[in-house]
Amino acid sequence: MSHPYSHISGSWVKVTSPRPHVALVELSRDPVNAFHEPFWTELGHVFDKIAEEPTIRAVVLASANSKLFSAGIDIGSLSGTLASESSPDPSRRALQLQGHIASFQASISALERCRYPVIVATHGVAYGLSIDIIAACDVRYAASSTSFAVKEVDVGLAADIGTLARLPKITGNQSLASELAFTARPFDASEALTLGLVSRVVNGGRDEVVKAALETATLIAEKSPIAVLGTKKLLLHARDHSVAENLDYTAVWNSAMLQTQDIPSAVVAFRKKQKPKFGPLGPKL
């Protein structure tokens, strides 16, 4: 069966459309979804392509593996990357590594850059790089079976792809976030809920949490795409700016967005007690 967004898929990142205007993105690299450079680069490219699709309104990110979300980075790949930075000069070697890290960060930040809300649905093991990925998503669900861990200190490095940048801002317990990052100890879905890393724990495994995420994505997809896009933009701006700065930014943003035809369409539908129908954002970007 052909899906409208299957052309976006890559070798390890598969894209389907199980609901109208909803893209389901699944990680699929056997045996444990461990990330090597081509995998994480592809993930970034897929989300950048999704952002160009005018008919998508919400995205669910999950694993195609029934047992786990991801074991994190492919340790063999990490060792190979460090060995490949071959300049004998420490400064030049540092610049090479800096470029590599920045490119890696940009790939994972594509989830945050995506103009549509991204809902991640985790289950089983979600270690290391999984936390960087989860933290870049807008809405985060976990199956009750999920085991998380910020594993980087166990392999001799500080997490550098987004966990330490985002975790203190998206969670409500600085002490617990620090403890988990310092110790690399596993924590379960209930503790992730306490931390604020996830907003919902779904009893069961992959199928149950993906179903819950798709239901939320379907609800979002029924809303005005202009309103949802703007809401994501303004929420991300608010996270990194003062209240006053965000209010100014919002005033400028909405001075343009309030001119949308989605507002009168929504008002008419409300008066008629009907669900409003909204058009796509426009031609493919």
UniProtKB/TrEMBL annotation:
UniProt keyword Iron-sulfur present: no
Q: Which Pfam families match?
A: ECH_1 (PF00378)
Keyword Iron-sulfur applies: no
Recorded hits in CDD domains, A to Z, give: crotonase-like
* One annotated GO molecular function: delta(3,5)-delta(2,4)-dienoyl-CoA isomerase activity
What InterPro entries has UniProt attached to this entry? ClpP/crotonase-like_dom_sf, Ech1-like, Enoyl-CoA_hydra/iso, Enoyl-CoA_hydra_C
- Give the record's keywords alphabetically: Fatty acid metabolism, Isomerase, Lipid metabolism
Gene Ontology biological process terms, A to Z: fatty acid beta-oxidation
* Lineage: superkingdom: Eukaryota
Any one Gene Ontology cellular component term annotated for this protein:
mitochondrion
Part of which pathway? Lipid metabolism; fatty acid beta-oxidation
Q: Which family does it belong to?
A: Belongs to the enoyl-CoA hydratase/isomerase family.
Q: What is this protein called?
A: ClpP/crotonase
